[in-house]
Write a structure and sequence with these properties.
By secondary structure, the protein is of the alpha/beta class. Among the domains are: about 80 residues, Chorismate mutase (Chorismate Mutase Domain, subunit A, Up-down Bundle); about 70 residues, Periplasmic binding protein-like II (D-Maltodextrin-Binding Protein, domain 2, 3-Layer(aba) Sandwich), CATH 3.40.190.10; about 90 residues, 2-Layer Sandwich (Alpha-Beta Plaits), CATH 3.30.70.260. It is built from 12 helices and 15 strands. Helix 2 packs antiparallel against helix 3. The chain is globular and about 65 Å long.
Amino acid sequence: MSLEKTRKKIDEVDDEIVDLLNKRLELAIDVGKEKKEHSEIVYDPVREEQIIEKLAKKSKGFPKEGIESVFREIFSVSRKAQSPIKIAYLGPETTFTHSAALKQFGTQAEYKSKDSINDVFLSVEKGETDFGVVPVENSMEGSVNRTYDRLITSELNIVGEISLKVNHNLLSKYRLRDITKIYSHPMAIAQCREWISKNLPKAEIFEVSSTAASVEAGTLYLNSAGIGSELAAQKFGLQVVEKNIQDLSSNYTRFLVLGRVMPKKSSKSKTSIVFSAKHEPGSLFNALEPLKKHMINMTKIESRPTRMRNWEYVFFVDFQGYVEDENVVKALGEMKKNTALLKILGSYPEKARFE
């Protein structure tokens, strides 16, 4: 078949895709009307995950990542047609948290950049935005403590999680050999330290508040560069001098989606809780034993100071299962008897730990 004929067939397929997208949008609008009648929220993370999982399994050639990317944007357009949603995220624009929010909610949501994790929580708590996106842990650097601390005091629920591969790039207007100053967020510097030592050993390093701020600084000063995403390079008009300069290729950050509702059960749910153990021998073992007893798989445990008394701690736990599952209900009931405090932070669709 000639190139011209093949392209003609592709054009025909594209026309069919557009017609089907329009039909899908009409149906999505009808769904939005029904949701409004029943006072249901527009964003349904469980339903979206089910659709992506089903279509990814069905696809014979198109990769899963591509299926997810395409349908996240379709969902975004559909939600906007039903009722636009507002998303608060830890800014500024073009940070990795912004990228994670875009990955989850698409380009058609209304985004509100916030200066701190606390501001993201407050924005959702006050109803200024519908959902918030905050970082909670990085595969190289560990937990984001401010997010954990705020989860203790907030009435918001975790309604979803996002796993984002973090690719650090050296961005500049200058050639690599001419760069003498690097501006970056401390975490990005830590994750790229070996590469910087090897390739720019004499460069001065300046810490700034975010990866976006580092890229902006890279546009202002002579022979300077920033470390950031390709999204940031596009916004600030910089060249990607070197791609993927992080010391480890498997660098992922996990983000939480915060909301005022509790999602429905999914085919693979995760539940997050926080508890404090009683001050007696074996208290931590006793608190966790019901999870083993009821065959519940714990995927993470993290301790944090209570910030109320010295040397007292709370424990954050993630486990597989939905909060209303019979075995989970029994386990949590028994855990309450063995803890001084137990709070459910959310039950939500589980993503691969670090995809």
